[in-house]
Write the structure tokens for this entry.
Amino acid sequence: MLQIQAKDYFEGEFELPGDKSVTHRAIMLNAGADGEAVITNALMGEDCLSTCRCMRSLGAEIDIDGTTLRVKGTPRFRRGRELNCGNSGTTIRLLTGFVAGKEIDATLYGDESLSARPMKRVAEPLAMLGAEVRTTDGHAPVIVSPKPLHGADIRISVASAQVKSAILLAGISADGETSVTEPVKSRDHTERMLAAMGADIRVDGNTVTVKRSTLRAIDVCVPSDISSAAYFMALGALKGKTLCKNVGINPTRTGYSKPLICWE
């Protein structure tokens, strides 16, 4: 039997798991970039393992040692791949955009739960870039066929980091400029990582614009997940002092009020 004894004062230091959203992007973008990269503090749950499996199938080399990954990218993806995205919505949505501009054919699918999630919200804006993306009654499996892409000005009615990211990842393979405008700003992990990897990208308020770009592999230390830190932050605020190390404090991700402070 587990017994918990209350304390009037609590003090402690914590190292927390990496952020899943950043881990997905670090794997996917480095796997499609020139060069090699080391990713540390990655969150290697089933969803991110699905991203690894898909990127390996497309030709990237990924070695996993605990929470550290070594990724050797492949700017030219293999053709005719069947990509099992498992239960990961981030994997299937971002990867649909990424492969759309790579002049390959690919089929993206997942488990029963993933197959129930909507995919038209990704396929329709990608079609505005010239992509040929066919869904199965609006869901997975999703079939991507090779088509040249062209820039477009796309406005999405509901803010979504996954939809925005899919468009941007297609846009870096398109001729001209591709712009995505959201009603409110969603988390911007993709924009930040694309900029760090050398993409031609600019941000103006709720609009992000990209041009055709070749990505350069970069090492990534994945910040710890602020959702995991929230419990210990609240504990420190109520009962004493806590130190949560290396926590990501991207303002588009945190969602916490200013009086709660997160230390790096």
